[in-house]
Design goal:
Blueprint lengths: L10 H21 L6 H8 L3 H8 L2 H13 L11 H17 L1 H12 L5 H23 L7 H18 L6 H13 L4
Length: 188
Amino acid sequence: MSVRPAARPGGRSARVQQAVHAAVRSLVEERGREGLTVPMVASRAGVTPSTVYRRWGDLQELLADVAVENLRPDGPPADLGSLRADLDAWARQFLEEMSSPPGRAYVRDALSGAPDGRGADQCSAYAAEQLAVILERGERRGERAPGLEDVLDRVVAPMMYRILFRPGPLTADYARALVAAACREPGA
């Protein structure tokens, strides 16, 4: 994504981004992604098409930016009192959200938006940040926690592979089994 950093936090730049993102979301909901154009988005957002092109480069990079923003977690992961319960809840929610039709579309947009992979990196960072909170919480409670990379490799990676390449029903039991294996055999 060729998103340029804002000259100042808030201000016009933030308002433009917010308006353009809102326009993309509403137009996709109303019309689908197929007929979406930069001029259509710009008109809905109340900006010129050149503003959109200057900031995002093209429609795919704009869709990727919106996707990455929509994939950002709303808050910290739930604290249910134990590492296993926290990981189970997080994995089930992650799987449910990412495997939904909108989730799959957001993931594909985030992955295809920037040739340098920044969208994928940001989405990975969101998951890693959430998991790090859960693992640190468990360690503070004295629980034996697997390493962050182990959880990413043994829980998140298989789910993402199935979401992207083997679409089909993915269940909470599948997520629980991945968490159980990661917790049972840390570092294996």
